[in-house]
Amino acid sequence: MMATMDALNEKMGKGTVRLGLPEKNAPWHLRCANRSPRYTTHWDELMRAYTDEGAARRAN
């Protein structure tokens, strides 16, 4: 595989073919702030639903 990548990069230009690693500061790079909530894997991040305002205030 590496020989093929080297050959393609030599023919097409350096960096044309590379391993699937993101570039530093790439605009699409994963950012933790944009991460999906983990409702299905972390119990403490489950949403809570209350039937009245008093219950919501007591929980906070």
TrEMBL record:
Residues 2-48 form the DUF4113 domain. It comes from the Bacteria. This is DUF4113 domain-containing protein. It comes from Vreelandella lionensis. The lineage of its organism: Bacteria, Pseudomonadati, Pseudomonadota, Gammaproteobacteria, Oceanospirillales.
